[in-house]
Amino acid sequence: MLVAATAAPRREERDRERREMDGARAHGADEALSSSRQRHPTVEPSGSMRTTGWSLLATLSLALMGAPRGALAALGAGARAIEAANAALGADPPNREAALAALAEAISVADEPEAVSEAYVLRGRLDEEGGAYEAALADDRAALAAAPNTRWALRASVRAEWLLARSEGRFEPLRRLESLRQDPARANDASAVAALERDAESFPPGMVRVEARMFVAEAYLGRLHRTGDADVELRRVVNDPRAPALTVRLAERELVDALSGEGRFDDAAAEARANAAQLDPGFAKRIARLARRRIERLVAYGVLAMFGAMAGAALARAQRRGVLRDAGRAIRRVAPVSAAFVAFAALAGGALASNYERGNAAPFWLLGLAVLPLILLARAWSAVGSRTRAVLVLRVVLSGARVLAAAFARLDGWAPADLEGVGL
To answer: Range with the lowest mean pLDDT among 234-248, 267-281, 290-304, 345-359?
Structure first.
């Protein structure tokens, strides 16, 4: 009881002290906040400041509304004229006269240089399409002068450079070439193309003569199917000192392609060797392989012919000796095993080839059909043929070579790309 009576007053005293301390802390915080506000007062906008801000905004708006309306009106006039020209050209049929009139109106808006430059570029395009190359060149130069640092000036500069590079003969050769290029019916007419070929020989040296010869060569190679005449034109382009490097490379490749397409592999390989610098190394190697393949083809067919001839001669002698039945019995003994082996090789090879995206199983099946008779013929020859060492060695060599020759012949006829894959 004494302890409880003593502890109660002490607890009350501690609670009173804690309340006094909390009050002191709160009072100190309020004083600190008041002091801070006195040091950093918040600025409230006064009525005069609000009035001044609205006055500045109104003045700026009036200044913008009173900006050079003449320039905006001029820009609008030029843009409207160009839109009218584009609308006239987009009509069905296009109204060229109305477009030219609208562009002339846009050009007259002298205080809007970009619109003037655009109008000159558009008019130059119309002049070029109409064969008026001198006027097109003048329009491009005017576009450059009107607004040098615009996208229209860049377009004008590119076209002016293109026209100047083809200005030989006062643009007459270019008119002659473009008149045929832009007429699909005449471009597919052999007599019209032949006339351009003759005219090109009288053109002054330059880009137009090179392009005319390429146009004629491509027409002969493609739609007119006159490969021999195309070879002549392509060779003229290759030997023209004014022809650009890229055009020479294209002409050289097409020339070699045309020679190999005619089956003139030796000529194609010789051309590729003589102008190797103008050809891609991979393309030149492929042409060299095609030239070698002609020899490989002759060897393969020669092996097959020799094997057939010697086997046939052995069977003929066996017939005269009356032992041909031995050949029949030998064939019957090996036929099931040989057929099973060939079927497995053909089907398995075809299945593996079919798993590839560009694989083709047909060559393996055809190879199986070709190899089985050769295996049976070799067995018949072995049963009735001579037993001398020289003939045995020859028969073994030919029997092995005839499989490779048959495989080469089948791939050469059905899948020549597979031969390239193994370097043949």
So the answer is: 345-359
Q: Is the pLDDT of residue 230 over 80?
A: yes
The pTM score is 0.62
**Exposure class string for 128-158: b at 16+ Cβ within 10 A, else e:** beebbbeebbbbbebbbebbeebebbebbee
CA-CA distance, 408 to 32, in Å (whole number)? 102
Q: How far apart are CA 252 and CA 245, in angstroms?
A: 11
- Position 284 scores a pLDDT of 85
Token pair listed for 411: 């791939």
Topology, domain 76-164: 1.25.40
- 263 — alpha (psi -120 to 50), left (phi > 0) or beta? left
| Helix count and strand count (H, E) for the chain | 19, 0
Residue found by looking up tokens 């050289």 in the block: 252
Q: 385, 293 in Cβ contact below 8 A?
A: no
pLDDT band at 387 (very low <50, low <70, confident <90, very high): confident
Domain boundaries, the chain: 76-164, 172-279, 292-421
345-350, long-range: CB within 8 Å, 24+ apart, which pairs?
345/371
- pLDDT above 60: residue 314: yes
DSSP 61: H
Rounded to 5°, angle at Cα 354 from 350 and 357: 150
